[in-house]
Amino acid sequence: MAAPYRVALVAFPGIRAFDVSVITEVWGPDRTDRGAPAFDLRRVATDSTPVPMRGGLTLLPDRPLTWLTGADLVLVPGLDDHLTPAPPPVLDALRHAHARGTPIAALCGGAFTLAQAGLLDGRRAITHWNLIDLFRAHHPHVTVVPDALFIEDDNIWTAAGTAAGIDLCLHLIRLAHGAEAAATIARSMVTAPFRTGTQAQFIEHPTPRTDRDADALASVREHALRHLHEPLTVADLAAHAGMSARTFARHFNAATGTTPLRWLLDQRIAAAQRLLERTDLPMPEVARRAGFGSEVTMRQHFASRLATSPRAYRAAFSTGAAVSEPAGNKPIAR
């Protein structure tokens, strides 16, 4: 049996209770009975003193900062006051963790803490859209990407506000343990399992001209998921929604923060990941069912989006118990 994946939640006065809750909900519960990996989540701090948070809440550390030396992942919550200085031992521990090659992820205003440690100088980062000007003013050597949910640079992850922290946490699960593990945890949290970091963090939600417009967008996404194996185009999706291609693309982007083609590609990659994890179907059949048309096309998209190949992905994340899939065209969608 594999050793539990060791996750360190870095705690110090001023961290945000919501981000602590997100981290705890993703990595804390034992979901191994549902096929999820085993995690060992620890709250690390400079000492064992309870860490105060807003609203009268406290967090009790259970490991010293030295525990970071053996961690597989280090997580930094956001801050209630985004200019809160982190204790120098915390900043030193984060620098040493990065030097060892340990992935580090900050949620929302946690990017300010990483910037204090100098870890973001000369690198790309993101934080909540409402904090970008403040962040740039205090950390001018960081390249801020203003319109993303989360981003990675040199094994350091940063995320936008609130719900984007959940998206980043699930993405980190997906990278380390596969799409099925991320979907299992997302289902238990009753949240969407797949939003990519490239989606816009600040989405205008204009009031639809009619309820029909909103219903049409939901219907077309459901239709696309049921027909991923078909050569769908924006014109096809627009026709299903009863809109012109230009109107459909505008409404779709406003509602989802991404383009129809990018969303469709993301769903096809997710479907292929699940097929690779859960079945022993040959690569050409996986590509066909996920809608890529050919194994070569699927391999190209895996390389550009996941920095791996379908075969390497299967070798890393196959459950080892192939699931019998129907012979028809219906793909696995989540």
Distance between the termini: 28 Å
Task: Describe the main β-sheet briefly.
Answer: 7 strands, mixed
Specify the overall morphology: globular
Unreliably modeled segments = 200-212, 323-334
Determine the strand fraction and express it as a percent band.
Answer: 5-15%
Helix content: 40-55%
Rg over CA atoms = 21 Å
Order of helices and strands: EHEEEEEHEHEHEEEHHHHHHHHH
Tally of strands: 11
State the secondary-structure class: alpha/beta
Strand arrangement, largest sheet?
Answer: 5-2-1-6-7-11-10
Number of H- or I-type helical stretches:
13
Overall average pLDDT:
87
Secondary structure topology:
Layout (H helix, E strand, L loop, with lengths): L4 E6 L6 H11 L11 E7 L5 E2 L5 E2 L3 E2 L8 E4 L11 H12 L4 E3 L3 H7 L7 E2 L6 H7 L4 E2 L5 E4 L2 E4 L3 H15 L1 H11 L21 H16 L7 H8 L3 H12 L3 H19 L4 H8 L4 H12 L3 H8 L17
Parallel strand pairs: 1-2, 1-6, 2-5, 6-7, 7-11, 8-9
Antiparallel strand pairs: 3-4, 10-11
Helix pairs in contact: 1-5, 5-6, 7-8, 8-9, 10-11, 10-13
